[in-house]
TrEMBL record:
<dbReference type="Pfam" id="PF00005">
    <property type="entry name" value="ABC_tran"/>
</dbReference>
<keyword id="KW-0812">Transmembrane</keyword>
<dbReference type="GO" id="GO:0005319">
    <property type="term" value="F:lipid transporter activity"/>
</dbReference>
<dbReference type="GO" id="GO:0016887">
    <property type="term" value="F:ATP hydrolysis activity"/>
</dbReference>
<feature type="transmembrane region" description="Helical">
    <location>
        <begin position="49"/>
        <end position="70"/>
    </location>
</feature>
<dbReference type="GO" id="GO:0140359">
    <property type="term" value="F:ABC-type transporter activity"/>
</dbReference>
<keyword id="KW-1133">Transmembrane helix</keyword>
<dbReference type="GO" id="GO:0016020">
    <property type="term" value="C:membrane"/>
</dbReference>
<dbReference type="InterPro" id="IPR026082">
    <property type="entry name" value="ABCA"/>
</dbReference>
<dbReference type="InterPro" id="IPR027417">
    <property type="entry name" value="P-loop_NTPase"/>
</dbReference>
<dbReference type="GO" id="GO:0005524">
    <property type="term" value="F:ATP binding"/>
</dbReference>
<protein>
    <recommendedName>
        <fullName>ABC transporter domain-containing protein</fullName>
    </recommendedName>
</protein>
<keyword id="KW-0813">Transport</keyword>
<feature type="domain" description="ABC transporter">
    <location>
        <begin position="278"/>
        <end position="327"/>
    </location>
</feature>
<dbReference type="InterPro" id="IPR003439">
    <property type="entry name" value="ABC_transporter-like_ATP-bd"/>
</dbReference>
<keyword id="KW-0677">Repeat</keyword>
<keyword id="KW-0472">Membrane</keyword>
Amino acid sequence: MMKVNGLREDNYFWVTFFSFLIYFAFTLTIVLGFGFYLFKYKVFVQTGFGIFTLVLFAWGLVQIAMAFFFSMIMADSNFSGILGYAGTFYLIGAALINNTLIYVPPGNIPLIYHFSPLITFQRCLQYIVLACQKGHCYNSFKQVPSQDSEFALCIYLLYIQAIVIAGCAWYVNQIAPQSSYGGGKKWNFLCSRTRKRAVPNSMQYNFDEIGDLEDARESNNLPVYDYDVALEDQDSKDERNFIYNLDKADYYKYPLIIKDLRKVFPLPDGLSEKVVIRNLTLKLKKGEILGLLGSNGAGKTTLLSILTGLVEPTKGNAWVAGFDIKNQTGAVQ
C-alpha cells in the first residue's frame, strides 16, 4: 500500500534498518556501560573496547538481517515468536556444549557449525572469556595469539553472515508476497534477460513479455467464459478482437491494456468462491480518460488494486505503458 502511495521500497528498508540499528546501539551502550563502569567486570575492563565493539556490532547486524529474513518467510507473528525462542534455546545449548565440552578453544570448530550465527557469536565470546581466564585479555588484535586465529575468523564470518542473510531476505521479498496484497517476481528474475527498444522513454522490456514468446504462458492461462458470450455487446467483442490481434511489441504505445483479466476470491467457508472480475479486456489510448461505473461489489476497486500491484489476478494480465503488472510491478507502481 505504501509503495502505491509513492514510498520506495529501498527507502522503507533503509529507514527500518537504521531504526533497528539505533535501538541496538542504545541497548549496546547500556550493556557496555554496566560492564565497564558500574560492575567493572574483568572481561570488560581488560578487553579492548574496540574488540568488544567490533564483535557486538557484527552481532547487531546479524540480528537485524535475521529480523528482516524471518519477517519475509513468516506471516504469523505468534508462530515466529515461538519458533524464535525455541530455536534460540536449542542453539544456545548446542553452542555451550560444543564450546565447553567438544571443541574447546584453541581447537577449531567445524566450519559447518558457522552456518548458525548464534554459534559463531558465542564462539567469539568464548575466546574473549577464556583469554581473560588465562590472564591475557585481548587488549588489541595484536595481542591475540596465533593459536587463537579462529577468533578473527569468527568476526569475519559474522559480518559475512549478516550480508548473506540480508541478501536472502531481499531475494525472498522480491519473489514472495508478504501478505494478501501484492505479488512476487519470478524466482529466476535475476537471470532474466532484458533489451532496450527504441521507444520515447527508453523503457526496458523482458523477453518473456514481448512478441510471441509469451504464447507458452498464455496457453496455460486461457480465459474462463462462465457467462453467455452471445449476450456480449458488439463493442466489447471488437475491443477483445483488437487486443487479441495487437502485437505485444506495440503495447508500450497504450497507457493501459487489460487482457482477459479475472479475479476470484475464496469465501470464508473455504468451499465456494466469489467471481469479482470476469475476463475484462480493454485498452486505453493516449489522451483518453477512463472512468469506472458500477454498483458496490462490481469490481472497480479490485481492478485498481490489481493494476497497482496490491492484488494478484487469478487469470489474465495487464500492461501499464508496456510494463507487465505481474513481472514488472515495480515499474508499474
